[in-house]
Specification:
342 residues; alpha/beta; 7-stranded mixed sheet; 20 strands
Length: 342
């Protein structure tokens, strides 16, 4: 049996690189050689806590759902994906048969399998398998890191879809990690009048300002100052803090709209009902994304978003444990850590 190198999480704070059997494509799947993987905030939840919500690591799991790969299967040619084609890989495998899939809401599939979460190995390995409809070939000129970043960009695009942003409405982004940095850029391209950013970590707030925010601060109460007490029309929350949604509510205007993207540490957050009710806020929760990869590719190809300032550090596959410790410690101005596999 063919083998490969892979990074597996065994429990919280315990990731090891090992040699494991290479996956064999099932019917309807193609073999892929993984190129680059981004370390996501949800990966860090597995690292810190051993779980994301009710999804708990109970056996060794290959993490990683933001990744690019090359088709390593001659059968790909029949699908317009000849061997060597660089693709972005959609990590979701919706069933296509449930009520939500049939309504076109595959991101809400009740039977979905998701690469890099319990029940399905992810991309932090030399090889992966996926069906052709989960593969999006990228234009010439896209490198492997750019293709991997299309997944988090897709999350940002879908978040703005949920926000129903109107031209010249003002946006506050609470949380300026990688997703927050992308939300700033996409909100600007979607027609926001002003975009403000808040993050308690100083270097991330500064990166937000460089990345296109009109103003940025480590204190969420700054939004009230920037808006003369009115608050933002739309607030996009992208933190890992149990306080993030509460701060987002404080940043919103009366009648404003919130989209909650972040996953709080401990899977809990608190909201004062009177604050939400008193402002008559509309709140939506973001769950991954719809069919937005084509738009993500177009945005990058047109130069509307920049990944370079976000992808700050790179590690090889054999140093994945170091990469997770590094990213989790917020060292050296890190925003997004990328793993180069092949």
């Amino acid at each position: 049996m063919a083998e490969m190198r892979a990074a597996l999480i065994h429990k919280a704070q315990d990731i090891r690189v090992a040699t494991v059997p290479r996956p064999e494509p099932r019917d309807g799947e193609l073999l892929l050689r993984v190129r680059t993987v981004g370390v996501c905030g949800s990966d860090l939840h597995y690292y810190r806590e051993g779980s994301v919500g009710t999804a708990t690591v109970t056996s060794p799991l290959i993490l990683g759902h933001e990744f690019s790969a090359e088709v390593a299967d001659d059968r790909g040619a029949a699908h317009g994906l000849p061997r060597g084609t660089l693709v972005a890989v959609d990590p979701a495998r919706p069933c296509g048969r449930c009520e939500w899939c049939l309504h076109g809401d595959q991101n809400l599939c009740s039977n979905v399998k998701f690469a890099g979460s319990p029940g399905m190995h992810g991309g932090l390995a030399e090889y992966h398998t996926a069906p052709p409809d989960a593969l999006f070939p990228v234009p010439a000129g896209f490198d492997a890191a750019t293709a991997a970043m299309l997944e988090p960009l897709g999350v940002a695009i879908f978040t703005l879809d949920l926000a129903h942003l109107r031209p010249m409405e003002n946006v506050a982004v609470v949380g300026a990690g990688p997703i927050g940095q992308l939300l700033i850029q996409v909100a600007r391209e979607a027609g926001a009048g002003h975009v403000w950013a808040v993050d308690p970590i100083g270097y991330r707030a500064e990166a937000a300002k460089r990345g296109g925010a009109d103003e940025a601060s480590t204190d969420y109460t700054a939004v009230a100052r920037w808006t003369n007490g009115r608050g933002a029309d739309v607030v996009l929350e992208a933190t890992n803090s149990p306080s993030g949604p509460e701060h987002a509510v404080a940043c919103a205007r009366v009648g404003g709209r919130l989209v909650l993207v972040g996953i709080p540490d401990g899977d809990r957050f608190n909201l004062a009902a009177s604050a939400v009710r008193g402002k008559a806020l509309t709140i939506k929760w973001q769950k991954r994304m719809g069919h937005v990869y084509p738009r993500a590719i177009q945005m990058v190809q047109a130069g509307r978003v920049k990944f370079g300032p976000i992808t700050t550090h790179t590690f090889p596959l054999d140093r994945v444990p170091d990469a997770f410790r590094f990213q989790n410690a917020y060292q050296e101005g890190v925003l997004k850590t990328m793993i180069e596999v092949g």
